[in-house]
Amino acid sequence: MTTRRADRDDRPTERTEPAEDREAPSDDAPRDEREAEPSSPLRDGAVDDDEPLSAAADEQSSREAPWWDAGGTPFSIAYWGSLALLVAGLFRNKLLPFIDYPQHLALAATLKRLIAGGVPERQLFETNLASYNSLFHVLVAAANLLVPIDLAGKLVLALYVFLVGYATLALLRATGRPRARAFLILPVVFGYSIIWGFVNFGLGVSLQIVVLSRVLDRDRILAGARRGAGLRRWLPDVLTAVLALLGAYTHLLATALAYMLMLVAIVARAQTDRAPLFERLGRALRTGIPLLPAIAWCAFVYWRQTHGSFQNFEYGIAEGNDAFAMLKVKEFFTYATGLRADGFDAKVLSIGMGLLLLGALLRDVEDAPPPALRWLVVTSGVAYLVIPHVFWATNYVFERISFLIVLTAVLWAPRAMPRFEQGLRLMFVSVGLAAAGGFFQFMGNPDVQKELGDLDWILDQMPAGRRVTGLLWDPIIRVHLPVPESKSVERANVTAQYALLHTPAYYVARKGGEVAFSFTRTMSLPVHYKKATMPPDPPPNFEWNPGDYRSDTPWAKYFDLVLMKTQWEDETDPRASVWGSHAGEVDLVAHRGKWWVFETKRVTEDPEAPAAPTLDPESEE
């Protein structure tokens, strides 16, 4: 390596003179002369397909590639095919094991019923569409006007998947980095944020990544627009402003984190540019102006909500709760993925990041990534370590930043020497294919399909438009394995998280009504209870602690249809253990596998209890 570098340094003019003035050595040239040449250069103005590209040629190729290109036709087919395989995995089950997802689906379904004129819903709920947590629900509600709610939610999730794929390529193009690295983002497309059901956050981040790519690539975009006249010259900045505003409408936290990176990128460029000071400041100001409407929108919504009739911050009491920094470092790959109990997704991601590290160790000294990229990595890493688990009355905050660390590392990591780079890129493709195939395989896991299939059947048996509470004694999907040479059975986790924790909300999504733990109690979301119709509160963190259920409490009397999941599929009736002496007053509605539905009206019957409105979505017609 030292000799090759010295050879190039001894001939500085060869890298600056026009290509047509240089003469490529013939195949008959002495071996030493051919080895002294750069390993991949653009020779005679053309790229030799048999030779790996030099760093400069590779950067130029990335910047000039079409938006869909992932490093050549075969790589592009593999990339978009992998994204399609991720989407296909969503359709292997009718329901999805993403924790908060059923709550967001229920909100969207309720919004659709309000739009369609559902009278019972209008008695209980009001809309808050002028918010910064709304786009997923609005899109799903609109789709639900045409297709069933389960399909509507998956269509919007599919939009998220392809948007992440496009945004990653846009960033690589804007920064001139190797486009095959887009495969390394696939292990976190269905990473921690989506596994926990933070669908608004995921959709918001993907939109703001597109905005970040436009911020980094503004000069090239404007150069193309200047060929036009009049309004056309302003269209790029207008489009950037619209996308940023759309991202802010989708999710506030996602916008804040992405804007943090945009600010760093703008400042880093102003600091590293060699132009005069006022020219740099003017460029930074012009780059930032299209981002201001989104900031103004967030400020307006915040002011409006703080001056509203009432507010609630469910996790405000836990503000600042966090994990130790060393634990964050140690468990980074788990925090970035977190779907599978066997850790396959985390292992695939770790291999991908290891390949980036290997490329850095074999670094091409000619590679010169934009200076801003190193600061994006530093900023994401510091934010991950400093921002706590509960922040802005929001749970699981630092865990979400792991996605940004992976993304910025993919952008910044040094490129390997040409003779190693192509092999690494083939390995990048393998990582992406493994991630997509692993997700598809997991969603077809027999234990996952049985658990979700049993729940789907149970939901179909439940009467519509009722008040439901969920008692999930075992919200993790598990497999029961017989112990060799023993009559006992061992339970092994299939999901790493409490995948079924909020599945009772699927009832509201499909059949209307109310559920005890509901996001409609949160005022910042696009649908929430009216202040006068807010039902009795269950105990704090009740969904995590079903043992806190007491049939004589106001909220238990209000929510008189109980959806329960037991720990063992042994046909043992759980009524005696939950209702004790009142077990005989509890009526069985349906049972399948570990899932049970009970009617508790006879237990909770109280002449002073408020009458339950009939929230049957079928009655809308």
Structure, described:
It is a single chain. The protein has helices at residues 2-10, 31-36, 55-64, 73-90, 101-115, 119-124, 135-144, 149-175, 192-195, 199-216, 218-225, 235-250, 252-272, 277-288, 292-306, 325-330, 332-336, 344-361, 371-386, 398-412, 418-443, 446-461, 505-511, 554-558, 575-579, 601-604, and strands at residues 125-127, 467-472, 478-482, 489-493, 514-515, 527-529, 561-565, 587-592, 595-599. It is of the alpha/beta class and 621 residues long. Among the domains are: 2-62, no CATH class; 446-620, no CATH class. The strands form 3 sheets. It has a 5-stranded mixed β-sheet with strand order 5-2-7-9-8, with helices on one face. It has a two-stranded antiparallel sheet with strand order 1-6. A two-stranded antiparallel sheet has the order 3-4. Helix 5 (101-115) packs across helix 7 (135-144) and helix 19 runs antiparallel to helix 20. The termini are far apart.
Q: Helical region count?
A: 26
Shape: globular
Structural Rg: 28 Å
Q: Please give the largest β-sheet.
A: 5 strands, mixed
Mean pLDDT: 88
pLDDT < 50 runs, ≥5 residues: 1-49, 612-621
Percentage beta strand: 5-15%
**Secondary structure: helix percent:** 40-55%
Number of strands: 9
Structural class designation: alpha/beta
Query: Could you give the order of strands across the largest sheet?
Result: 5-2-7-9-8
What is the rounded distance between the termini? Answer: 75 Å
